[in-house]
Amino acid sequence: MTTPRLSPHRQAFDDAFAKCPLIAILRGVKPEEVEAIGEALVEAGFTILEVPMNSPDPLDSIARLARKLEGRAVVGAGTVLRVEDVEDVGAAGGTLIIAPNANVRVIAAAAEHGYVALPGIATPTEAFAALEAGAAALKLFPAEAASPAVLKAMRAVLPKDTRVLPVGGITPERMAEWRTAGAAGFGLGSALYAPGMSADDVVARARGFITALNTG
After folding, report:
1. What is the mean pLDDT of each run of 10 residues along the chain (216 residues)?
2. Which positions are annotated as active-site residues?
């Protein structure tokens, strides 16, 4: 049996994830500041960036990042809750469709367009449904409501190649215990970026996460 060929967007995501399995979540970022912050993150070693849809003018920010970081980072949207948003994100240049929930219609729409669906899950039932709908990886969310022990138990039943990324409350100090439990990577929110932070502030935090990733 031949292995299905990956879409170019999925291949780009897989390549970026292999370089750095950390997703920078830029919730609340403004379009006029997003390029400097994105550049700082890439210089620090990040290769995957997310602008949540409940940020100010998110599609503008995604478009700016996609142009600025073309060929250097994969860019997309978070908090994608509607099927209609999938095409809007794609039109802006985003190829990641990330959500806090496991809406199989959103996942399937993203997969149909060749985009990378990364839905939020909290149970094995949601995880298997998301994978069947076409999810490329799973976001364990909120990680504060789970634990490394929960992730380890899920990994025992999920397909071996499933990538699970804890998201929520992740700090550099906690990454090692999650990795031991089977975390493939992480989504990083307010511990990495909060509205109003400068690019210099962001890069300092980004380097802390990169160091923890490489030494954990």
Report:
1. 74 98 98 98 98 98 98 98 98 98 98 97 98 98 97 97 97 97 98 96 96 89
2. 50, 139
* Chain-centre distance for alpha carbon 70: 17
Q: Are 138 and 118 in contact (CB under 8 A)?
A: yes
Q: How many other C-beta atoms can be found within 10 angstroms of the C-beta atom of residue 101?
A: 17
Given CA atoms 158, 19, 31, 85 in this order, what sign does their dihedral have? negative
The 10s digit of each residue's pLDDT in 121-179 is 999 999 999 999 999 999 999 999 999 999 999 999 999 999 999 999 999 999 999 99
| Contact yes or no for 43/210 (Cβ under 8 A) | no
Cα separation, 59 vs 175, whole angstroms:
30
Residues in contact with 188: Cβ distance below 8 Å, sequence separation at least 6, in sequence order = 22, 23, 24, 25, 167, 170, 209
Q: What is the 3-state secondary structure (H, E, C) of 45-84?
A: CCCEEEEECCCCCHHHHHHHHHHHCCCCCEEEEECCCCHH
Nearest to 139 by CA among 106, 188, 92, 175: 188
What span, in angstroms and rounded, lies between the C-alpha atoms of 208 and 199? Answer: 14
What was the pLDDT predicted at 4? 60
Q: Rounded CA gap, 205 and 175, in Å?
A: 14
Give the closest residue to 81 by CA, choosing from 73, 89, 72: 89
